[in-house]
Write a structure and sequence with these properties.
239 residues, alpha/beta, 5-stranded mixed beta sheet, 4-stranded mixed beta sheet, 18% helix, binds fe (ii) ion
Length: 239
């Protein structure tokens, strides 16, 4: 039997669950026996909507992401970027055996980004450990290795996106995208302006170690299984 991961790290585009889809009190509760991995591979889109569009009554409930940890090549440079450029707050520093470090930096609402510093860490491999920025900029994609963190998106207010973009641009750190309007209706995935089909507005940028980051603002439209769960999951090679 294929191995099935037990931990899902949910790092999407600032996704906030609509209040009526993960709430046992609202009558939106998944029932029935638990399925095996093989059974999940056979579910139709309609079955996925009905089953995974709701959580079971005994489903685990999180209170948001506590932190995501990257690896820094230079903790001083990382601190400069997050605390001086972006204005996040350093909340905790730890020393690790062998001169390593682990720092926690908070952006508000208990949403933190963390960094490890390992003196002998392997060098970044673009396109493997993190995105290949050149490939991204030339339209060749932004794939990274299995199990890697491709990018982290923070929720921000829509009316702050332009100001935050300018601030990152002025710091001259690296790539900063225009404001992007994610749209289900446009084949490219984006529309030129905000309209009724916009699900997120966001900017993408990179940190000092080319860690791929996003500031995302979710629009008012609530996700529904019928409108937003439309694809069967790909079955990959787990070997
Ligand atoms: Fe994203």
């Amino acid at each position: 039997m294929k191995r099935v991961g037990t931990i899902t790290r949910h790092l999407t585009h600032g996704y906030t669950a609509p209040s009526n889809t993960n709430n046992a009190d609202a009558g939106q509760v998944r029932t029935g026996p638990k399925l095996s991995y093989e059974e999940v591979t056979k579910l139709s889109v309609k079955e996925l909507q009905e089953r995974f569009g709701k959580a079971p009554a005994d489903g685990l409930k999180t209170r948001g992401v506590n932190h995501v940890a990257f690896v820094s090549a230079d903790m001083a440079r990382t601190l400069w970027f997050w605390c001086e450029v972006l204005g996040f707050r350093l909340v905790k520093t730890l020393e690790l055996p062998g001169d390593g470090q682990h720092f926690f930096i908070d952006g508000g609402n208990d949403c933190a980004i963390a960094y490890f510093y390992f003196p002998n860490a392997p060098k970044a491999v673009p396109g493997v450990s993190s995105i290949d920025v050149d490939a991204l900029m030339t339209g060749k994609g932004f794939a990274t290795a299995h199990g890697s963190v491709n990018h982290v998106a923070f929720n921000v207010s829509r009316d702050k996106l332009r100001e935050y973009r300018k601030r990152i641009l002025e710091a001259g750190v690296g790539m900063v995208s225009p404001i992007l309007y994610h749209s289900d209706k446009d084949p490219s995935g984006y529309s030129k302006t905000r309209d009724e089909n916009t699900v997120w507005e966001s900017i993408y940028f990179v940190g000092p170690d080319n860690e791929y980051l996003e500031f995302a603002a979710q629009t008012e439209r609530e996700f529904t299984p019928e409108q937003d769960i439309l694809h069967k999951p790909a079955i990959g090679n787990q070997d």
